[in-house]
Structure formats: structure tokens, C-alpha cells
Design a protein that fits this description.
Layout: E1 3-12, E2 15-25, E3 30-35, H1 41-49, E4 58-61, E5 64-65, H2 71-77, E6 79-82, H3 94-101, H4 108-121, H5 123-127, H6 138-150, E7 156-160, H7 168-185, E8 188-192, H8 196-200, E9 205-210, E10 213-219, H9 220-224, H10 227-233
Parallel strand pairs: 3-8, 3-9, 6-7, 7-8
Antiparallel strand pairs: 1-2, 1-4, 4-5, 9-10
Helix pairs in contact: 3-6
The structure holds adenosine-5'-triphosphate (ATP).
Residues 12, 15, 17, 35, 37-43, 194 line the site of adenosine-5'-triphosphate.
């Protein structure tokens, strides 16, 4: 297993938000996290990245215990997190954002070929290559944030609601590119998404969170066939 969470709890100061979350991401697979507003999806990603306190449970990545580890260390082990709200640098150009993502890498040729791959994957970024992040549309900022995270050459790409705030057609474009990124690189993914239809276009399996607990895990096909999931997350 690439990533494994067992009975994870998490708290902001005294406020416990996650009670009992378990999930796993097999090497090379894409896993979704579904759940209503406030269920704890974002907090689960923060627990993995080391930006929220995890008083109990275990988090293992490539066999290392990463619970409570600093975010820089988690990133250096190969987890790149694209936060909700995108986390791209508004005062840098697209080009600079992508290169910042690669700052720990020494393989110059690999960096150049990864940039070429991303510009082919996201033609908007090629058109906007010299523009500041702040001048981009919401969809372009999302593409840039994904690109920047990919440039770190992570083993696991963690995406927090890539569709958030995007028009439906833009969200679809972003997901089509995420699916291609996955197919062509074999990168593993963990994707938080409220829109299950979009998530199911990319993931192999998903876990459902309710008020800080993982309550159901299944393959995409199993979850599509589940009446409760259909009602709650697939619009009937
Ligand atoms: P959303 O789709 O709204 O982002 P989510 O499933 O990602 O929902 P979280 O963002 O993980 O949910 O939030 C879970 C709970 O934790 C919510 O009740 C939220 O109010 C609370 N919470 C989030 N951030 C903080 C914080 N910094 N301090 C205290 N409570 C927080």
C-alpha cells in the first residue's frame, strides 16, 4: 500500500474534527474522498500533509510513519498537495510557478520535458505562460496549481476539490486533463471532490466521510450502484 490511514483523529486546537478515518491508496491507483460540506475531507488531507494535529491513529506512506511529521518532510517523501483555493503564487508567472514546483529537483532534462508535457496537457497554460497568476481565470489557476504540484515529481498527488468555484464546462476540462495526467504518468492520486460524477471520471475507488468518520469504501462501480450514494452524491 502506498498510503494507509488507520483510525485517524484530527483536531484544530481543542476542536476535534476527525473521529475515525481509515483509507488506503494502492500504488498507482486514484482514490476519491466524498462527503458533504464539513464532513472532514479537507481536514483528512491536512492530516496527511502535516498541517493539522493528529492525536491518534496511524498514517503510513511508503512504509514510513508520517503522522505528526512536518509538512516539508511529507512533501520531500513524495506527497504533493494542491490545497482548496489552489495555493498558486499570484505574483509569479505561470512559468515561474511551474519552476518553483521543481525547486528540489536536479534533473534539468526531466524538468524541461515535464514542463513541455504540462503545456501540452493544459494548452491554456501555454497561452498564459508569461502571465502572472493573478491574471488567470479560476480554471487556469487550478491548472497552474496542479502543474506546480506535478513539477515536484511526487509519487502521490493530493487534490482538494479541483472543481471548486469553476463553471461546469471548465470543471470538466480540468478533470479530463487530470485523467490524462494519470493515464500517461501512472501517478497515484487522492482526490477530494463534492461532485461525485466528476470524481468517478478519474478514481478507481472512493471513501465516503460523514461527520469525521469514514463510513463506506468501495470501487467506483460499487458506489455508482449504491442507491444511497446515488441519492446523496449523484443527483438521484
Ligand atoms: P468543505 O467541503 O466545506 O471544505 P470538508 O468536508 O472539507 O468540507 P473540513 O474543511 O475538513 O470539511 O471541515 C470539517 C469541520 O472542521 C467543519 O466543521 C469545519 O467548520 C471545521 N474546521 C475546519 N477548519 C477549521 C479550523 N481551522 N479551526 C476550527 N475548525 C475548523
Amino acid at each position: 500500500m502506498l498510503l494507509e490511514l488507520e483510525h485517524v483523529a484530527a483536531a484544530y486546537g481543542p476542536v476535534q474534527v476527525l473521529e475515525d478515518v481509515s483509507l488506503s491508496v494502492p500504488e498507482g491507483s486514484a482514490v476519491g474522498i466524498l462527503g458533504a460540506n464539513g464532513a472532514g475531507k479537507t481536514t483528512t488531507l491536512r492530516a496527511i500533509s502535516g498541517t493539522v494535529r493528529v492525536p491518534s491513529g496511524s498514517i503510513r506512506f511508503k512504509g514510513n510513519d508520517i503522522r505528526g511529521k512536518r509538512p516539508e518532510l511529507v512533501a520531500a517523501l513524495g506527497i504533493a498537495h494542491v490545497p482548496e483555493g489552489r495555493g498558486a503564487l499570484a505574483n509569479l508567472t505561470v512559468q515561474e510557478n511551474l519552476r518553483v514546483g521543481a525547486y528540489l529537483r536536479k534533473d534539468r532534462a526531466g524538468i524541461e520535458s515535464d514542463i513541455a508535457f504540462l503545456l501540452d496537457l493544459f494548452p491554456n497554460l501555454e497561452r498564459r505562460y508569461g502571465s502572472n497568476g493573478s491574471a488567470l481565470s479560476g480554471g487556469e489557476q487550478q491548472m497552474m496549481a496542479i502543474g506546480r504540484a506535478f513539477m515536484a515529481k511526487p509519487t502521490l498527488l493530493v487534490l482538494d476539490e479541483p472543481s471548486l468555484g469553476l463553471a461546469p464546462s471548465t470543471a470538466k476540462t480540468v478533470y479530463t486533463a487530470i485523467a490524462r495526467l494519470r493515464d500517461e504518468t501512472g501517478i497515484s492520486m487522492l482526490v477530494v471532490e463534492q461532485n461525485a460524477n466528476l470524481a468517478f471520471s478519474v478514481v478507481d475507488s472512493a471513501v465516503v466521510l460523514e461527520t469525521g468518520r469514514s463510513v463506506l469504501t468501495g470501487s467506483t462501480a460499487e458506489l455508482r450502484g449504491n442507491d444511497e450514494i446515488r441519492r446523496a452524491y449523484l443527483g438521484g
